[in-house]
Each structure stands twice: as C-alpha cells, then as structure tokens.
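To: structure subgroup
Subject: Chain for Friday's discussion

All,

I'm putting the inputs and outputs inline so they're searchable in the archive.
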Amino acid sequence: MPRSVNAVASRARRKKILKAAKGYFGRRKNVLTVAKNAVDKAMGYAFVGRKLKKRAYRQLWIARINAGARINGTTYSKLMHKLTTNKIDLNRKSLADLALNHPDSFKAVVKAAK
C-alpha cells in the first residue's frame, strides 16, 4: 500500500504561516521555521495588545468624566458613587461621550446624581 502523507493539508498549513509572516524582514518572511516563531511571537503580542486597548480606553473615559465632573463642581469618584447610590446606570463610555460632546446633558446627569 502506498504511503499517504496528505500533502494538501501540509502545504496549506505552511502557506498559512508564510502568509501571516508576509512583510517581515529577512528569513522571517520565507523560511518556515523562522517564520513560525515570528508569527507565534506576533500573535502573542496581538493578544496582549487587544487587552491593553480596552484598558487604555477605560482610562481615557475616566479622564474625560473626571474633567467634566470637576467643571460641574465634583470629582470622578464622588460622581460615580452618587450615580450608583441613586441607581443611575450609565456606563463610562456613554458618560465620557456626554462629558465631551454634550456638556449640558452631562450637567443634567450630575445634577440628577446630587
């Protein structure tokens, strides 16, 4: 019986890695073993980067809410505490958008929290 190696799947796996390594410098783009290591490292960085992006956006929203709150005579922590005690459920993303683009609406939210 002839030996079966499934060359189609093997080639597809290799092509997938080399396609992901397209644009890399030197052997990282065309030597399979080097490209595999480079792609694995890049995928790890991409995974971590997606988590860091969420963290960075949350920091940005908090800074914007704090700036808007201080204009209206309170601080971020006091405002968030008052919002939770008065059961006003607005997330930080929408509060930051109100503080930046709709200051009158944000002022109304701050007044409702007091």
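Points worth raising on Friday:
The chain has one domain: 8-113.
The chain has a mean pLDDT of 96.

D.
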